[in-house]
Amino acid sequence: MSQMHRLLCCTAAGICIGLSASVATAQSPVCEQSPTENRWPEVIAPMLGQSPAWLVGGAGTWVKDEPVKTLWVILRSAGQVRITGHRTDGLAAAKFIREWGDAPSNELVIENPNMRRIIPHGASPDVLRQYLFFGSNVIYDSPGCWEFDVVVGDQTSRIVKDVPLHGAR
To answer: Considering only 8-12, 67-71, 124-128, which range has the smallest mean pLDDT?
Structure first.
């Protein structure tokens, strides 16, 4: 999209003339988030993603150096869970903290998800048979469009989340 701007050009002789110029305005890239699902509104908030993995991100905006409590929802499957994250519109990588006191890591690995899971209050036995829930904290280096690659056993899922600057909404 462009806008018309009035420019004032002056020559070395001191003659100034007004010109109209079309100047392209910078547009920030659009972050196309993953689909939102609200499967269990009585249990957890809406989640981003699609089978076999989803995330429920606590904070809606970015605040420097503030870990964001995140709930991961995984379709029950054999094998470990491995999650990495990066900006799609920049160079930053997400850092993960599995438990308080752990050092931040470039990836979240859960060797045995059945043993590391949490049980959300109100989740039915049928839901708990099909899905695993576990928490972590994610540290976003900066606001922007973030992509998480989630490997669950032999399946891979991609989750895209927009993390706007605090106060920008």
So the answer is: 8-12
With contact defined as beta carbons under 8 Å apart, do 105 and 85 qualify? no
SS3 of residue 28 by DSSP: coil
Where residue 6 falls (left for φ over 0; alpha for ψ -120 to 50; beta otherwise) is beta
| CA atoms within 13 Å, Cβ hemisphere of 154 | 1
Q: Which amino acid is at 154?
A: D
Instruction: Give which of 34, 35, 42, 57 is closest to 127, Cα–Cα.
Output: 42
CB-CB contact of 160 with 88 (8 Å): yes
Q: What is the pTM of this model?
A: 0.78
Of 161 and 4, the structure prediction assigns the larger pLDDT to 161
What separation in angstroms does the CA of 108 have from each of 40, 88, 105, 151, 165?
25, 19, 7, 10, 24
Q: DSSP class of residue 158?
A: E
